[in-house]
Fold this sequence. Notes:
The structure is a single chain. By secondary structure, this protein is α+β, with helices and mostly antiparallel strands. The protein has helices at 2-21, 59-62, 69-96, and strands at residues 25-28, 31-34, 41-44, 65-67. The chain has one domain. The protein is built from 3 helices and 4 strands, in the order αβββαβα. Strands 1-2-3-4 form a 4-stranded antiparallel sheet, with no helix packed on it. Helix 1 crosses helix 3 (69-96). The longest helix has 28 residues, at 69-96. The two termini are 26 Å apart. This is DUF4306 domain-containing protein. Keywords: Membrane, Transmembrane, Transmembrane helix.
Amino acid sequence: MVLKNKLLFLSLFISVLSIFLSPAKQINNHTYSIGFPLNFIWFRSYEPIPHNRFLLFFPSYFVKTEFNILAFIFCILLLYIILRIIIKFINIIKLKV
């Protein structure tokens, strides 16, 4: 149970960290998407996306930012499943060696 909670926290941490570390993908002239493995934040503005991603959560940029909570939750679950599969493969390899 503790391992499952740690994996869930790790997948949440990776998803939140992807906001600041993953490159923004330009969808069209004034729309950028951010997130890993799925895009869950969209920034819509005629000015370019700020280099400091913390600014997306300040009032001047927040009105231009769209946060898709369903895609964020799906991203966390997807990362959780991938981490669980990796852990199972590591355990299988350890048993065979």
